[in-house]
Amino acid sequence: MKIANEKVVGGLSCSEVLDRLSDYLDGDLPGAERAKVEEHLRGCEGCTRFGGEFRATVTALRARLVGVAAPPQVRERLREALRREGGPR
Hints:
Elements: E1 8-9, E2 12-13, H1 14-26, H2 31-43, H3 45-64, H4 72-85
Antiparallel strand pairs: 1-2
């Protein structure tokens, strides 16, 4: 995904940060990668704003879905579909 007025901060472009945002919020990035994302977020207002909105959305969805369990096959198919789509748009 290409973003208008894309910045490179902390060695990552806005597109690269958005590609990693879900893993970042889930705590699934290795330390060095997490540090790069955090440095980018400190220096990029647009990604910081989007990241905050995305975090709020994920948090709200998780709160509403507590106790709702999809079968493992459904969860894996959803993860794969999201990966193919390239994450948040």
